[in-house]
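#onboarding

Welcome to the new folks! Below is a worked example of what a typical request in this channel looks like: someone posts a single protein sequence, and someone else replies with the predicted structure as tokens. Don't worry about understanding the tokens yet, we'll cover that in week two.

Example request:
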Amino acid sequence: MTGLLQLDGITKSYGSRLVLDGIRFDVAPGRLTGFVGGNGAGKTTTMRIILGVLSADGGTVSLGGTALTTADRQRFGYMPEERGLYPKMKVLEQVVYLARLHGFGKADATTRATALLEELGLGERLDDTIESLSLGNQQRAQIAAALVHDPQVLILDEPFSGLDPLAVEVVAGVLQARAAQGAAILFSSHQLDVVERLCDDLIIIAGGTIRASGSRDELRAQHSTDRYRLVTGGDAGWLRGEPGVAVVDFEGGTALFDVDAPATAQRVLRTALQHGDVSSFAPQQPSLAQIFKEVIQ
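Example response:
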């Protein structure tokens, strides 16, 4: 899929240390793209190059196939990992101010900011100062600041950091709604379970290079193994004696196992049916955490 935002061959060094080496990926409109990697992998540097905060040593960043300009970046929304709001300003006042910097009149800016803050669960905190909010609510306000001008491209660095599970759901819903309206969204996170559930596409970076990229389903298919889960009404201990089967986990009538060939899986199913009822028999797709571990090694 051709992306709205395209990076091609981005390199960046600090002195003799190469921190980005030929970074290449797309961020498609209407989709949430998860950007994951360990500390120092190059995520924040890549995001800052997209935003023009840092300059690349080589490669290009383009929007819709043409070189990215300063005017294009006015249509971007950015949430840095480190909070950047004015602590003494009131929540609504802060977000209205940022909307006005993007050219909205006072009334329109106030309407937009109020609706967005309410959507993010801050409707009762509009007149509170930023510094008086909990860290999680400060994070929500920071997200509102990035979204208030309806950006075409949204770049979020650790948007779920410090959020409790309920707040994660609220923010996830807001981002999904923006993607449904056509925004291209790139977000980094160390919370792989959230990324796995939320993202449409995934980019894994390690050591300044892209180790894997593609849709969530494509990556699961590429890194899948011949692993199956069997749930029976009885004891599945007989699996341990089956040729071509390596039992990974076993408890009562539930077993997780690898096979040496698809034919072995079918034989196991036939044998299971001979032993009694089979509630479930299905191949198991790898989790994002498993894929991540595999590709960065």
